[in-house]
């Protein structure tokens, strides 16, 4: 027998290099996700503790933000546990990671709805402040929005829980996708052997694309819901600038703070979930995980998707400091004027043309 004719096929070297490269990327993602999830937990907890100590949880203005922070807090814990489980060998590791990912999707879909609800509440409050009227919107509608934001994501994810666990869709992830506890989106399951118990490739593929589609659809619905009040704010503000005369300084401060919150919270939302949405679209149409594009999107997702609690805390803290700064400036201006000077100032403002009064009001809001 001529052993020289027998040749062992060589494994391409670039496959080993690519595997090592992905392994280093996932290791970096683990630490990024761990750090950002910790910061997000701290940020969400800060808002919750502040609202509790201020006894403002039940107020219509703070309640949507409070529930949004609770959702971000629970999501942050999911991210943190997922990063801790990466690379660990524990009992029922596959089942834990699969259900942890599904639970995390419930929380970030709930965070989507809470963000849309809070943006609309900010817009309604801003409109009421500009019109200088008390809010006439029913508290029942506000509570219904909070209830839907809490239970609708759970209802949407019941098929993923039930069909995924019933068909044991987590079984083949043990070898192919050891990073599943880290990331939002897994690749579709592939049945590489015939002894996987109750594993059903077709059912698990359907469950996978259902979960991915639910994320993409809820993101687009939330984006549209958020953009509508943003465009309305521009028209309302233009009307206010045109008709506004001399107004109460404290009212102008409240309007200015509300304007910034209406813009900044949606901006934080798009920053956090935009990369994850793009990655979901890429996986929907081309789900073979190769190339530099996937690495870049995974890194962006690790930085942004886990940071919503932190960014919401920064936005709330900055606008609160901005409110105190404007209020302190107004009080300082009033304390340095005599009653005669304040009377002269009001009389002077009433004698100015409408354009100057509008400019003065605009400067106050800025």
Please characterize this protein's 3D structure:
The protein has 366 residues and is an all-alpha fold. The protein is 77% helix and 0% strand. It has 11 helices and no strands. α1 (13-53) packs antiparallel against α2. It is elongated, with a radius of gyration of 27 Å. The model is unreliable at 1-11, 191-197 and 338-366 (pLDDT under 50).
Weakly predicted, low-confidence segments: 1-11, 191-197, 338-366
Radius of gyration: 27 Å
Query: Which percent bin holds the helix content?
Result: over 70%
**What's the rounded overall pLDDT mean?**
76
Q: Tell me the distance between the termini.
A: 90 Å
Oligomer: single chain
- Largest sheet report: none
The ordered H/E elements are HHHHHHHHHHH
Please count the helical segments: 11
Query: What is the global morphology?
Result: elongated
Range of strand content? under 5%
Structural class: mainly alpha
| Overall strand count | 0
Protein name: G-protein coupled receptors family 1 profile domain-containing protein
Subcellular location: Membrane
InterPro entries: GCR1-cAMP_receptor (IPR022343), GPCR_Rhodpsn_7TM (IPR017452), GPR1/2/3_C (IPR022596)
Main location: membrane
